[in-house]
Amino acid sequence: MQSESKMHAIVTLFRLLWIINGVAGAIFNVAQLQWTLKNQNGSIQIPAAGPPSHAHLDLANAGIITEPLLGINDFTQRWIIDDNWTYTADLLPFTRTLDPEENQATFLVFYGIDTVANISVGGHPVAWVNNQFRQYTFDISAFIAAPSSGDSNLTVSLQSAYHYALNVSTRPDAEHFPGNGGFEYPGIFPWVRKVASDFGWDWGPAFVPVGIYKPAYIVILASSTNHSAVQTGTPPISPSHPAMDDVSGPIWVDESSIDIYKAGQSFSVPPDQKADWVVNVTLALRSAVSVPKSVLTLSFPELNLTSEPFDIADIPIATNESFWMTVTWSIPDSVPQRWYPHNLGTPKLYNLSVILATPGDSSSTSLVNFVTRTGFRTIELAQTRYSQADVEQRGITPGDQWHFKINGRAFYSLGTNIIPFDPFYARMSTDRVRWVLQSAVKSGQNMVRVWGGGIYQPSSSSVAGGGYDFYSICDELGILAWSELIFSDALYPINDFMLETIEPEVRQNVRRVNRHPSNVQWAGGNEIEGIVTSTNRSVENGIHFLNEFVTLFEHFLHDVVVSETHSVPYTDCSTTKGVLSLDPYVLRFDNGTQGEIYGNGERYNYDASKAFDYTTFPVSRFMNEFGFHSMPSFYTWEEVLTSPDDFSFNSTVVMSREHHPPAGSLAFPNPNAPKGQRQMTVAVELWLPTPDTADTNQTFAQWCYSTQIFQTMTMVSQVAWYRHGAGKGENNLGALVWQLNDIWQGVSWSSVEYSGRWKVLQYGLTGIFAPVIIYPFWTAANETLQTLVISDRWEDVEGSAQLTWYDWLGRPLDTTSYNFTVPTLNNSVLLEASGLNTILPIGKDAADVWLLLNITAEVDGRTVTNEQYFTPTSLANAHLVDPEISVARGQDLTFTLSAKGGVAAWTWIDHPSGTVGIFVDKDTGVPSNGFYLIPGIDRTLSFVLNAALSRVAEPDVSDFVRREGLTTGIAADEVIEPQTQRIAENCDESAPGVRGGTVGLPAPRRLYRVLVVNTHRIPELDFTNMRGGTMVLCAVPRCLLVKMAHNNTWRASHHENNIRARAHYREGANASSRQFKARANTTRRARAHYREGTIAPSRQFKARANTTRWTMHVTNNEMGRRVPPPTTICLDHAVEATTTRELEKSSSRPPAIRKGRRRHYNFWTLSAFAALAVRARARMAPIIFRSPPGLRDLFIDFVDRRMVVGFACRRDHQ
User: Fold this and answer.
1) Where is the signal peptide, in residue numbers (predicted)?
2) Which terminus in the chain has less CB density within 10 A, N or C?
3) pTM of the predicted model as reported, rounded to 2 decimal places
4) Are 898 and 905 contacting, i.e. CB atoms less than 8 angstroms apart?
5) How confident is the model at residue 1057 (pLDDT cuts 50, 70, 90)?
6) For residue 450, how far is the Cα from the chain centroid?
7) Residue 404 forms beta bridges with which residues?
8) Catalytic one among 527, 554, 602, 730?
9) For residues 472 and 1178, which has the higher predicted lDDT (pLDDT)?
10) What is the SS3 assignment for 693?
11) Bridge-partner residues for 1015, per DSSP?
12) Active site residue 527
C-alpha cells in the first residue's frame, strides 16, 4: 500500500507539472522515480535513492553494509567492486502524463555515469557508455512511444570498472606500459576513463565505486514556438526538483561556452591589455522544431550594456545531434571592472544575459533565455626565454620563464593542491566544498590546483549536474583554480577507441569551465612528463613511449583544448620542463643547457634529517608540489575507529590507512605501511620531544599532534625558501603545497582533515602565506643565520621588525629592532651572522634559548603582522620546562591562554568532536593556533563556528582541549576524553544520552567503563526497575526503542522492513557455515596485526577472525546513513544450561566460548549468550542485556567491543 501511495503521489506531481506547462516542454528529475538496485545474480535487490548515487551508498542505506569509511571497510567491502550492479526505475509515473496524440521530442540526459554501463528504455537498448567524465544526451522519443513487451523501465546496467579495465588491458591491441604498477589495483586505471584515485592512491582508499553519480533528467520539448522560454540559470541546467527551471520552449541548450578574452589573444599570442574584450558565446542546441530566423542578444545589466541583435542562421530540427551556434561581442577595455584574486584586488563578477528569440516587436517569442555569472580578466602562463637584459640587469639565471600573469602583471602564486573531496562524489555538498575553499582563502592562498588524478570539478550544483559548487565559489572568493585533464602518474594508451571517447570528454569540460574567471590554465595531466622522460632514458626502445606521449599530450590534447578556449593556456603536464616553442607547440623535455632553469618543479624528501637542509631544495621557477605526510587528529580518528584497541599509532586499522608507500597490489594491510609510519616516527623523534604519557589515548593523541607539528615545520621552511626565490636568480613565483583536503580519515599530506578540521599545517600556512613575512634561514653546516623580510606585493612595503632572544623560562635576553623596505616581489636582508657563538646571547647554550621574530607593515591600507620562531637546536634537545598553562574560558567561545612556568612551544587548543571551525586572534581576526606562548604575553582566541557543517550547534567551552606545547603533551586537567556525553552519577540520566564516535575512557568511581561506537543518540531507553549493570548492543542506530518488562522478557523494537544482515552472498545463496569459516580464515590471514612492528601471535589472529565472523554491523550515522524502520522481536529466558559444555551443544554458541573453558556461568549470563547468538544468526537487531554488576568483565570479554554502545551501573551497586 505504501508503494502504491508513493507512486500515486509521483504521478499526481508529474501530471500537475504537465498541466501547468501545457504543451510547453518540461524537465523531470528522474530521482523522483522509484529506483531499485540489484547485483548480477539477483541475490541482492534493494530500494535505491536514485541519481545521484553509488552502489556503496545505496547498500549502506539498505543496511547491507556499514558506512564504507568505517574501520577496514575499504578491504571488507571489496566484493562490491567485483560484482555488476543494475539500477532500474519504472517510467510509468512519467509516461502516464504524456498525451499519446502529441509527438514531443523526449531526451534522456545523464550528466555523469560511473563508468561502464548499458542503458535501456522501455526494453529498447539506448546506448553503451564507458566514460565517467562525459555528459550524455539521448533521444528516446521512439522508445517512450513504443515500449517493448510491456517493459516500462529505465535501466542502467553497470559493469565492474575494475573487471572492464582488466579486460581492455588484455586486448590484442593493448600494449604493456613499463612502470604502470598502480597504487592498489595494479596497472589498469589508464584503460578506463574513470577517476584514477578510485583504484587507490597513497593518501586514499580504493572503493572503485559504480553508479549514476550525477543527476539525470528527462527533457520534453514543445512542438511549437508559441511559448516563450522561462529564464533559467547557466545551461545546461540541472534543477534539483521538477518544479524548478522548467523548459518552456522547443529548444534545449545541451552545452554552453562563455569565453571572454582580448581581441587577438590566443594560446601562443599574449593578450594586449588595451585591446577590446571579446565575449564569445557558443551554444549547442537540441531543437524539436525548425526555426527559419532568430536573433541572439547579449547584455550585462550592471553595466547598462546591451549588444546589437545577432542574426542566427536557420535552426534545423536537431534531436539526434546538437546544432552549434556562436556569436562574438566586442566591449571596450575600459567598460568592465577586472576580476582579480582576493589578495591582489577585487574578484568582480557580472551577470551576462543571453536571449535567443524569434524576431518581431513586443510579441516576439524567446526560445532560449538564461543568465550566467562571469568576469573579465586575462591570465597568461609566461614560458618564453628570459631576455639578456633580465639576466644582466635583474640577475636572473638564464633559461625560460614559468609563472602566471593576471591582467598583465606577474604575481606570486600561493596555494595548495586539491584531491577529490570524498570517495563517493554523489554525497558531496556545497557546504563542505565552500569550507575547504574558504579555508584556503583564510590562510592567504590565491590558487588551488585541481589534481589530474581525480575528477573534473563542477561549475555549480545547478549546471551540468554538478552536484555541488566549485568554480562558482572560486569566482566568488577570488581564488584561482589550476585545472587539469584527468590523466595521472602513468603512461596512457593512444588507441583509437580511447581517443574517440577522450575528445568529447575534454571538449565538454573545457567549454563548461570557460566562463569562470578563476580558471588559470589546463594542464594535460599530472607528473607524466617526468615518467615518460625517465622511461625514455631507462627502457629499451623508450623513444616509442616518448613518441606516444608526444602524440597524446603535445598534439592531440593540446589541439582539442586550444580549439575550445582563447582565454587560458595549456601545458602538457603539471610538472614540466617547459617548451621549445609555443607556435608550433614543441615540448623541451631534456633539451636544455647545463646551468639554465626551465619549467617548474616538485619535492618529496622523506629523509627527516634533510628537512631543513636548503641544499636539498630545488631551485625552480615555480613549485607546484611539495609535501610531507602526517596523522589526522585524535578526534578525526574517532570518526572511523570502532575499537579501543585501534587507538594506537601502529594498530592494525591505523596502519591499514597508511598507504604510503603504496602496496602496488591488493595486499592488505599495506605491506609497505611500516615504512611510511617510520618516516613520521623518525621525523618526530629527530626534531621534537618523543610523546610519552601514562595513558595510551593521550600518547596516541600526542603522536598525531607531533606528526602535524613536524609537517608544519618542514612545509613552512620550504614555502619561505621558495618565496625568497622571487628575489633570487631563479625568480621563483609559485609555491603550491601538497595537499589541501582529505578524501577520508587517514594518514595524508593534507592541511584540512576530512571533516573540515584544520591541522596545524593550515595555521602554519596562514603565517607563511601572509603578504609580508619574516623568516630565519639557518644553515647548520656552516652555522649561518640569514633573516629576511619577504613580500609578494606589487608595491614597495615599509615596516619594522623586532628580534628577541628568550630562554625557555620566558625571560627576554636580547632584543634588536630594524626598519625595512622591501621592493615589489622581492626580499630584504635584516640580519646575516655566522658562528653559533656570535649568534647566541652571551653565555647561553643552544638548548637554552630561542628567537622570536616579529614584523609590522602597512599593506593595502591595513596593518599586517607576522611572527616566526628560530630554535638553534632541535626541540628534541631543547631544555623545555613545564609552561603551566592556564585557560580563561568565555561563554562566547573565547579563550585566553596564559603561561606561568615557562614558554610553551607549539601551544594548541582543539575544538570538540562534532564541531567545525577555526580559532582566530581576538584582536586581528587572523587564524591563529600552534604558537609559542610566552609568560606575560597572553593570547586570546575566538572560535568561529561553521554552523552549516557542525553537528554540535552550541559547543560547551569546557569541551575545548588545550595542549601544553611539547613538554608534557596533555595538561593534567585537560585529559582527552572521547566525545560522549559525560557519565552522570545516576546512570538513569546518563545512559539515554550516549553519543557516538568515541573510545573507552576511565569511568568515575563506582561506575563501569563505557565503550561507545560511532552511532548517534539512542532515544527513549527506559531503565525502569534496572538492577545491576546494563549493557546496550545496537546494530541499527537511532531506531532502538527498548522496554524492560517486569516479567523478565526482553523486547527490542526494530523496523518491519529492515533488510536482513547479509551473510556474505556467494552465487545467490546465503553462506554456509563452511563459507563463514573460509571468510573468517581469509580475514584472519589477511589482517596481520602489527604490534610495535611485529606480527601478532596466532591467538590474536584467531580472536580477530572470530570477531569478524560474528560482527554485528554498526552504522555510522554521522556519515549520512539513512536507517531503516524497526520490527519487533521478543526473547525470553529459554536457555536453562548451567555450564559452558551444555551451551556448546547449541549450534548458535557465540564464538568467544571455546572448548576447554570449564567455568560455570549463571542463568543471566547464559540468557545473554543465547540472545546474542540468536540475533547474530537472524537479523542483527538491537539487544539489551541486563546483569548483576559483577559480570561486567564477562560481557566485555565475550561481546565484540565494537558493538557496545553503553555500559553503566547504579552507584548503589559495587
Assistant:
1) 1-25
2) N
3) 0.82
4) no
5) very low
6) 11
7) 381
8) 527
9) 472
10) coil
11) none
12) yes
